[in-house]
Design brief:
Layout (H helix, E strand, L loop, with lengths): L32 E3 L27 E3 L4 E7 L2 E7 L2 E6 L4 E5 L6 E5 L11 E9 L2 E10 L2 E10 L2 E2 L3 E7 L10 E3 L5 E5 L17 E5 L16 E4 L3 E7 L5 E6 L4 E7 L24 E4 L5 E7 L2 E6 L4 E7 L5 E6 L7 E6 L5 E5 L7 E6 L1 E3 L4
Antiparallel strand pairs: 1-24, 2-28, 3-27, 4-5, 5-6, 6-7, 8-9, 9-10, 10-11, 10-12, 13-14, 14-15, 15-16, 17-18, 18-19, 19-20, 21-22, 22-23, 23-24, 25-26, 26-27
């Protein structure tokens, strides 16, 4: 069993982060669209930054949730991440080491248990990713242990997980700001988000993996073409990034929890410095990369992120809503919120095996969370 340990582990000595209070802002209703060109809509006047625009081409149409979501899985305890393998869905529950397998409408079954998971604060059983290699299917998992965070992989066949192989161990961890999202990029490399574990200065320290987005081979090695020689670091200056995806051009994007002012939607470039803790949100400082969009922290709390046929979908945890983001040909971003407050905290969002959009409800401490499925349709032409 391979075991790669990074020596820059930050001890989990910070107290657990307290719950942020969620407020329903005036002017935020289902399907309300706001762009950076708008200067005043109630409390949305300063929602978006304007300095940095995406450079990816915009598709001809945008997608929107179409109708009322239907619950396809119920009774989950703090689900954190879900993936699909063929017709099967797999979901992690933060407080449990068990991975559940399901198909829409069926009762979830255990696929197996990940060893050495320790759940405390916002740590525990976190992100999932999949990879097919030859005739083998692997499930990758990011989880907390008694000594930081870890990435493992397990073979998956006939609804069952095999033994866990450690890909990368000793990642920074603590009671809060663990990051935890993993995904394979179009280049075949595995990317992982790592929070700064409530130690903000680590985000600017390139000797630490805290407050970073990492890039590694599927086996956990450092790619030769990473932006910093001999380092897993792909980008830095992050606080607590929890969503990553790629658009049709291969451009990487990420969501990030702010502190008490701005949550962020960022265009990620190799070696980029995103400013934390010097800057939160747009800082207009040439030393740091500004977010493409920013939201007041009580309206967003961005966690999971996915991209489907020209539209970004963001799981709004604190703001308790689903967001879409579209970027026009001139780089202007446009965001729309859906279902504010109707389904509680939303932790992750992904393309479902039924052809619909899936999102995970995630009430803190609750045992009655689920996975919702909603069809997507082209946005009506204005």
């Amino acid at each position: 069993m391979k075991r790669r340990i990074f020596a820059g582990y930050a001890a989990p000595n910070a107290p657990e982060e307290s719950l942020r209070t969620t407020h329903r802002a005036a002017g935020l209703t289902r399907g309300v669209t706001t762009t950076i060109a708008i200067t005043a809509i109630s409390s949305l006047a300063a929602v978006f930054s304007s300095a940095v625009h995406a450079q990816s081409p915009a598709p001809a149409t945008a997608l929107i949730p179409d109708g009322t979501p239907v619950e396809i899985v119920s009774g989950l305890r703090i689900p954190w991440s879900a993936v699909t393998i063929g017709q099967d869905g797999l979901v992690s529950q933060r407080g449990s080491a068990e991975i559940l397998r399901f198909r829409p409408g069926d009762t979830p079954q255990s696929a197996g248990t990940v060893p050495d998971v320790v759940a405390r604060g916002d740590g525990g059983m976190l992100g999932l990713a999949t990879r097919t290699e030859g005739g083998n299917v692997w499930l990758y998992a990011y989880h907390s242990t008694s000594a930081g965070n870890r990435i493992v992989r397990m073979p998956y066949a006939e609804g069952t997980l095999g033994d866990a192989e450690i890909i990368l161990d000793g990642l920074p961890g603590g009671r809060a700001h663990n990051g935890g999202r993993i995904a394979f990029g179009p280049d075949g490399m595995l990317y992982a988000t790592v929070g700064e574990t409530r130690n903000p200065d680590l985000s600017q320290d390139l000797q630490s993996l805290a407050g970073k987005i990492l890039r590694m081979t599927p086996e956990g090695d450092i790619p030769d073409d990473n932006p910093f020689d001999g380092s897993y670091v792909y980008s830095f200056g992050h606080r607590n990034p929890q969503g990553i995806t790629w658009d049709e051009t291969g451009q990487m994007w990420a969501t990030e929890f702010g502190n008490d002012r701005w949550d962020e939607f960022n265009r990620i470039v190799p070696g980029g410095n995103y400013g934390w803790p010097v800057v939160e949100g747009q800082g207009d400082n040439p030393d740091y990369i500004d977010p493409v969009l920013q939201w007041p922290t009580d309206q967003m709390g961005p966690s999971g992120l996915t991209y489907i046929d020209g539209t970004f979908f963001i799981a709004g945890l604190t703001g308790q809503r689903l967001w879409t983001v579209n970027i026009a040909a001139d780089g202007t971003p446009e965001a729309t919120d859906y279902y504010p407050g109707e389904y509680g905290r939303i932790r992750d969002v992904l393309p479902g095996s039924d052809g619909n959009l899936w999102f995970l409800t995630n009430t803190r401490g609750g045992g009655d969370n689920g996975i919702m499925s909603v069809p997507l349709a082209p946005s009506p032409t204005p």
